[in-house]
Design goal:
By secondary structure, this protein is an alpha+beta fold. The chain is 49% helix and 19% strand. It contains 6 helices and 6 strands; from the N terminus they run αβββαααααβββ.
């Protein structure tokens, strides 16, 4: 949580907890440069929501409900909360999304976002940051 608060500060965004009615668990107010999250969230939910909303702040999203914006914010959150080496260890224990999420202390949607955009699997080997161009693969895990 401290790292997320520090990251918010580096973006010039303040973070607030409040009671939020309805299905929304948090939001980014671009005009006030603040993230608000529901104070009743579990620590995993809180970190996921906060990191996701910081993604909106980073990209300066001002139109909510846009699927591309939501996907970008999820991936941003995943990159904030999932370290490649921790992912590798979790995947070796159990490669299911739910098990990896549990091990990493994040919601499964962030694991799915991370796997979809940050990983490439070739011949039983997982690589991270592989979309940097030819010769730029970074080895993460072997499934042998």
């Amino acid at each position: 949580m401290k790292e997320l608060i520090a990251h918010a500060a580096s973006l010039g965004v303040s973070v607030h907890a409040a009671h939020i009615d309805g299905p929304q668990r948090g939001y980014y107010d671009a005009s006030a440069k603040q993230v608000v999250y529901d104070y009743e969230l579990t620590p995993v939910e809180r970190d996921t929501v906060l990191a996701h909303e910081l993604g909106h702040a980073f990209y300066d999203h001002q139109c909510y409900g846009n699927p591309k914006f939501e996907a970008a914010a999820d991936y941003y959150a995943a990159c904030l909360l999932i370290a490649p080496d921790a992912y590798m260890r979790a995947e070796r224990l159990d490669p299911s999304v739910d098990a990896i999420a549990e091990e990493l202390g994040v919601e499964p949607k962030l694991v799915r976002a991370y796997e979809a955009r940050a990983l490439t699997r070739l011949h039983g080997v997982t690589y991270v940051r592989s979309r940097m161009g030819a010769g730029q693969y970074h080895f993460v895990a072997s499934h042998a």
